[in-house]
Specification:
- This protein is α/β, with parallel strands linked by helices.
- The protein has one domain: Ribokinase (UDP-N-acetylmuramoyl-L-alanine:D-glutamate ligase, 3-Layer(aba) Sandwich), CATH 3.40.1190.20.
- Helices cover about 35% and strands about 25% of the residues.
- The chain is built from ten helices and 14 strands.
- The strands form two sheets. It has a ten-stranded mixed sheet with strand order 5-4-1-8-9-10-11-12-13-14, sandwiched between helices. Strands 3-2-6-7 form a four-stranded mixed sheet.
- Helix 1 crosses helix 8.
- The protein is globular.
Length: about 300
């Protein structure tokens, strides 16, 4: 079974207005709520593509219940730890007349040490874990080395661990040797401490990470596609030119495609193809909406693969 971890989930309110009016009432044209967070996005996409996963994380209050209910109604299996704080709410505001989007992101609740201990114990007790996907920012009160401890827990179960994080959380977790990491080009630059301007720079950075004991590095590069690197083999994938509505969730969708493909026994070319198609399909949807299965399937044969 694939398990995803989201330690700072959010209830996203996507609001559309015609135009923001200063010192006047702005009428809402449409509003929709989404269960959000990087790991949650991964589970949502896996479900959309016909796979199964269990979303793990920390939720609290009425908004946490609503978030969980949205996932259950969407067919996503969940096993959240309840906390005393209130799950954060983000506002995604789209100004239709100007085709502009504004994202207002809340900090989220502070998590107590007992709550973290209970969450960690729950992961240790999982019996059927084959994949553990850890994504996104850490909640307030959570140590930066928690991801490292989760990676060790996954290794004891012989599970494939994938980490998609940034900054200190990523830096302090590399030494625990996750099976795979999924940085974007900017996150990879911060991880190795220098700007990566060329494809050769990216490959050099990947080689350095492999020396740390990481088997796979999956690098997302926006419209330039993905690079998958192992110690002995590098492959890049690029989707056809598509009309981009919003890049929100595209990286999470790429993670979902890669892990789902791997769990189905696909070779690395199949995994990367599905990863690229899922990311591109999500970029074609507005706001925080994620990919649709039919779009992913239509894109799959059009993904260009090239060994580097």
């Amino acid at each position: 079974m694939i398990y995803t971890v989201t330690l700072n989930p959010a209830l996203d309110r996507a609001v559309t207005v015609d135009r923001l009016l200063e010192d006047d009432t702005t009428r809402v044209q449409a509003e929709k709520h989404y269960a959000a967070g990087k790991g949650i996005d991964v589970s949502r996409v896996i479900t959309e593509l016909g796979g199964k996963s269990v979303a793990l994380g920390l939720v609290g209050g009425y908004d946490g219940l609503q978030l969980e209910g949205l996932l259950i109604n969407a067919g996503v299996m969940t096993s959240f730890k309840r906390i005393s704080g209130e799950t954060r709410t983000n506002i995604i505001l789209r100004e239709a007349s100007r085709n502009r989007q504004y994202v207002i992101s809340a900090a989220g609740p502070e998590v107590g040490s007992a709550e973290i201990a209970e969450f960690y114990r729950g992961i240790v007790e999982i019996q059927d874990m084959e994949y553990l996907v850890m994504s996104g920012s850490l909640a307030r009160g959570v140590s930066h080395n928690l991801y490292g401890q989760l990676i060790l827990a996954a290794r004891k179960k012989n599970a494939f661990s994938l980490l998609d994080a940034d900054g200190r959380a990523m830096q302090e977790s590399i030494g625990f040797q996750p099976t795979c990491i999924k940085p974007n080009i900017h996150e990879l630059s911060r991880l190795v401490g220098r700007e990566l301007e060329t494809e050769s720079d990216i490959l050099d950075a990947c080689e350095r990470i492999h020396r740390e004991g990481v088997t796979y590095v999956l690098v997302s590069r926006g419209k330039d596609g993905l690079i998958l690197s192992t110690e002995t083999w590098r492959l890049k994938a690029k989707a056809p030119a598509v009309e981009t509505e919003s890049a929100v969730g595209a990286g999470d969708s790429a993670v979902a495609g890669f892990v789902l493909g791997h769990s189905r026994g696909g070779d690395l070319t199949d995994c990367l193809r599905l990863s690229c198609a899922a990311g591109a399909a999500t970029a074609m949807t507005p706001g925080t909406e994620l990919c649709h299965r039919e779009t992913v399937e239509a894109l799959l044969p059009r993904i260009e693969l090239e060994e580097i």
